[in-house]
Amino acid sequence: MVVWKNRVFDYASGGKILISAAVFKDAYDIIREHAKKKSVVAYSDLMDKLKKRNHTKINRGTIGSIIGEISNQISLITKPSIYPSSIVVHKGSTNTGIGFWALKKGTMPPSKIPIKNRKMALSTYQRDVFQKPW
After folding, report:
1. 3-state SS of 39-64?
2. Within-domain flag for 1
């Protein structure tokens, strides 16, 4: 069980934004719902669902940090590590964002996967998420 905490993230433009623990919890719940149904969720759909839960500071600049934090936390409490952000994809595809491949925590972090092996590895990461008894 993860105890979600407020986190401050840096914007590429130099600013900072506080993301509340409630945002992480709700995003995790949405991702988990999709994992139970064995379906991917688009970044934009995840943002829309979070906004419907009254999380107004969610945008393209924050969503990657949010799902990355979720994967980092879950990877630390699952053995072998599970990376829930592997099922958050670009709309109309099964591909994650580039930030997924920068994750460094857990037993087999995506950052250790050579570029030429990423397509096959992503399928494995997604399968692991879908097979977990959520």
Report:
1. CCEEHHHHHHHHHHCCCCCCCHHHHH
2. no
